[in-house]
UniProtKB/TrEMBL annotation:
NCBIfam families: PNPH-PUNA-XAPA, PRK08202.1
PROSITE patterns the record matches: PNP_MTAP_2
Gene3D superfamilies: Nucleoside phosphorylase domain
CDD domains documented for this protein: PNP-EcPNPII_like (cd09009)
Chain ranges of the Nucleoside phosphorylase domain: 29-221
Organism superkingdom: Eukaryota
UniProt-listed InterPro entries: Nucleoside_phosphorylase_d, Nucleoside_phosphorylase_sf, Purine_phosphorylase, Purine_phosphorylase-2_CS
Pathway participation: Purine metabolism; purine nucleoside salvage
EC number: 2.4.2.1
Annotated catalysed reactions: inosine + phosphate = alpha-D-ribose 1-phosphate + hypoxanthine; guanosine + phosphate = alpha-D-ribose 1-phosphate + guanine; 2'-deoxyinosine + phosphate = 2-deoxy-alpha-D-ribose 1-phosphate + hypoxanthine; 2'-deoxyguanosine + phosphate = 2-deoxy-alpha-D-ribose 1-phosphate + guanine
Species per Swiss-Prot/TrEMBL record: Ilyodon furcidens (goldbreast splitfin)
UniProt protein name: purine-nucleoside phosphorylase
Enzyme class: transferase
Length: 223
């Protein structure tokens, strides 16, 4: 990492404490709503929401279609927190800032993180509008050293050298497939490999061909 930026444990804790003192919800699940999925948060019951600009330490959303709001509430009886809008590196945020909310959620007791995003499909058989469940990823930024985990390690958040072989939970992936079958939309859902690039430009034709040959099924700009 070339940036010397660091965020101390206290800063994450301050934000987590502020949120916990401003909501009665104690979510175990966090959902990041990508482009086009913000309306999911509007369906939560017993809602309480905060504009990112009112939350101490939180970065700000600058992308159209990302409301910039943290919504707490119940989804099918489960307490959860939804990000209506995420932070991207192409907006000018450091990678540490793009991932800031995740560590805050961890400190609030969240155990399951569901990430969603808009992406470009490269796989044969993956049509615009289909849903791809991420089974593995290629982090092109990480491969060249641009990683939010670079810098001094905070052991309270995890080990210095985290294993990545099981980072997308198999049980949750199977559950999602099962639910798609029950809903009669299994034909629109498949598993695949996601690649993260910096954006904000979409890929050239040559880049898309290269990614496809490398085994990438969908490409996007979310970390
Ligand atoms: O759902 P999000 O994160 O916005 O994902 C994708 O959609 C936007 C481009 O259309 C980019 O922000 C890209 O990252
Ligand atoms: N990089 C990238 N991000 C996207 N977000 C939505 N579509 C795309 C795409 O085709 N490429």
């Amino acid at each position: 990492m070339h940036s010397k930026e660091q965020i101390g444990h206290d800063e994450y804790q301050n934000t987590a404490d502020w949120l916990m003192s401003h909501t009665k919800h104690r979510p175990l699940v966090a959902i990041i709503c990508g482009s086009g999925l913000g309306m999911l948060a509007d369906t939560l019951k017993c809602q309480g929401s905060f504009d990112y600009s009112d939350i101490p330490g939180f970065p700000q959303s600058t992308v159209q279609g990302h409301a910039g709001r943290l919504v707490f509430g119940e989804l099918k009886g489960k307490s959860c927190v939804c990000m209506q809008g995420r932070f991207h590196m192409y907006e000018g945020h450091s990678l540490l800032k793009t991932t800031f909310p995740i560590r805050v959620f961890k400190l609030m007791g969240v155990e399951t993180l569901i990430v969603t995003n808009a992406a470009g499909s490269l796989a044969d058989g993956l049509q615009p509008g289909d849903i791809m469940i991420i089974k593995d990823h290629i982090n092109f930024l990480g491969l060249v050293g641009l990683n939010p985990l670079s810098g001094p390690n905070d052991d309270k958040f995890g080990p210095r050298f985290p294993a990545m072989s099981g980072c997308y939970d198999k049980g949750l992936r199977s559950l999602m497939m099962e639910i798609a079958k029950q809903m009669g939309v299994a034909g629109l859902v498949q598993e695949g490999v996601y690649a993260m690039v910096g954006g904000p430009n979409f890929e050239t034709i040559a880049e898309a061909k290269l990614l496809h040959r490398l085994g990438v099924d969908a490409v996007g700009m979310m970390y």
